[in-house]
Write a structure and sequence with these properties.
Helix content: under 10%
Distance between the termini: 12 Å
Shape: elongated
Low-confidence stretches: none
Strand content: over 45%
Mean pLDDT: 94
CATH architecture of one domain: Roll
CATH topology of one domain: SH3 type barrels
Largest sheet: 6 strands, antiparallel
Structural class: mainly beta
Number of strands: 10
CATH class of one domain: Mainly Beta
Length: 104
């Protein structure tokens, strides 16, 4: 079970976008996450007239290491650590460590 999943609201805790919030678009296998609107870079792209692709400089999102993001807790308004626990019905769920609120 992963601590950060697709669709989670996160806050960046390290790097050039520190303090910014976003939504996870994709969780990669190498321990990185792709966040919407965060860690934008400029890519110089060559045009391809056969495919109808225009050349120029385009903005692109790059993955962040999962250790540089925290899940955003709406109750506290800050990033929060995540823990796992098993409920009485046998389900394994994620919860915020600060206020024991269950996520799933």
């Amino acid at each position: 079970m992963q601590r950060i999943r697709k669709g989670d609201e996160i806050v960046v805790i390290a790097g050039k976008d520190k303090g910014r919030q976003g939504t996870v678009e994709e969780v990669l296998d190498n321990g990185k996450v792709l966040v919407q609107g965060i860690n934008m870079v400029k890519k110089h792209q060559r045009g391809n007239p056969n495919q109808g692709v225009a050349g120029g400089i385009v903005d692109k999102e790059m993955p962040l290491n999962a250790s540089n993001v925290m899940l955003f807790n709406t109750d506290t308004g800050k990033g929060d650590r995540i823990g796992f626990k098993v409920l009485e019905d046998g389900r394994k769920v994620r919860y915020f460590k600060s206020n024991n609120e269950v996520l799933d």
